[in-house]
Amino acid sequence: MKDTSGGSATQIRLRDYLRDELILPQRELTAQQELFRFVNEVALENGYVNEQFLPKLIAREEKYPTGLELEQGAVAIPHTDADTIVKEFVAVITTKEPIEFHRMDDPAHLVRPRLFFVLGLNRPHAQVKMLQQLAAVIQNHELVTLLEQAPTPEAIRATLE
């Protein structure tokens, strides 16, 4: 039986933070700000974030970029302050075309991901554990490709579970 309580510090599982309304495949978004506005609109409408989420997400991304270059391809894992999160979540968004993000490890360079994990976590230990879980996902090229190509929220959820 699946633990949906969010788990303890040692029991953080990606699948427990996936929210159906925040699994958003094959979106026609072309710019970082557009992506952020889109996820903010859906998350705010569904009670996951407060009004400060969007401005703080944008500010944090400018200061601490979240683009990651992979062996093949790229992903981005935008996130922001815990005080903007009402209910914890991990949003999974794919886009039809890549969106430019500055690299986390080298902000002077850009990556062009089509796969985005937006973290909405309000407990510090949860963020560290979730990043560990996501690292395992994004290091698997086949999994990243399946996620990028998934046509439906159900296909994304099935791939991640």
UniProtKB/TrEMBL annotation:
It holds the Pfam family PTS_EIIA_2. This is PTS system, galactitol-specific IIA component. PROSITE patterns: PTS_EIIA_TYPE_2 (PS51094). Residues 16-161 form the PTS EIIA type-2 domain. PANTHER family: PHOSPHOTRANSFERASE SYSTEM MANNITOL_FRUCTOSE-SPECIFIC IIA DOMAIN CONTAINING PROTEIN (PTHR47738:SF3), PTS SYSTEM FRUCTOSE-LIKE EIIA COMPONENT-RELATED (PTHR47738).
